[in-house]
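Apologies for my clumsy wording, but can you show me some protein sequence, whichever is easiest, together with the matching structure tokens, please?
=====
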Amino acid sequence: FVVGILFLAGCGKKIDASSEKEMKKSIDSIVKSMTSEEADQFKKDCIAVIFFNQKDNAEAYKILDGKTPQEVNTMANEIREKLRLIEEQRRIEAEKQRAVREAELKRLAEERRANEVAALKNRIEKLKQIELENIKNQKQLARIVITDARFARIKDGFMEIPVIAFHIDNKTDKTISKIFCYAVLKSKGRKVAWLKDSFNYSFKGGLNPGEKQKLELAPNMFSDWGELENRDDYILTITIKGLEDENEKPLWQTQDNVSEEIEAAQR
């Protein structure tokens, strides 16, 4: 801007903006006495003043009327400075808003992380409670003793039917109305089980405390049990997974894979 003031300072002619025609005429007259660089600067100054103050043409012309190129340059520089300050203020405000947004995003991220950590701790605590409950319930379930478990295919007329047989002894102080079991059928020396399956059985009249029963259960002959060949080396393991009491309510329930879930949650 200083350069504009210096090279326009020697130009004492004034703009006649009494009309659009006269203004154009007087500007053309002024620029004739200027260098190309000065003329370009003068025209830019006029445009800056007009567009910054413009309400209508007549109003804009009045602003330039009687002004020398130096005065126009001063006005234009003041306008440019105002625009620079406005732009700087906008930049500052934008920076403030960006900082506020970033701070809010950081706060939300920290809050979300804190909530996730709290939720994870809460889940681990609940899993540990379940694990303790599992241990207690497993001790009770272990008092339902299963012995002499075996599997065989028994002839029934012209057919062979699959039979799961075992003794069950209720050593708890609760009456059992139903058992939920998990069976694994293997053979010695074989790493892969022949069959893994779940089944349940309801006791007629229940299984009272201290009572023993021998059960012979016949799975559906068209199920996987029915497809097993007759062998003399089967090893059958039956695990009690759940019980129902005399009111058919769950008794001493356990949840599988709790330790694995705790380990995964603590990683």
Notes: Residues 1-10 have pLDDT under 50 and may be disordered. The helical segments are 2-9, 20-32, 36-53, 57-64, 69-141, 258-265. The beta strands are 144-156, 159-170, 176-187, 195-207, 212-217, 234-245, 250-251.
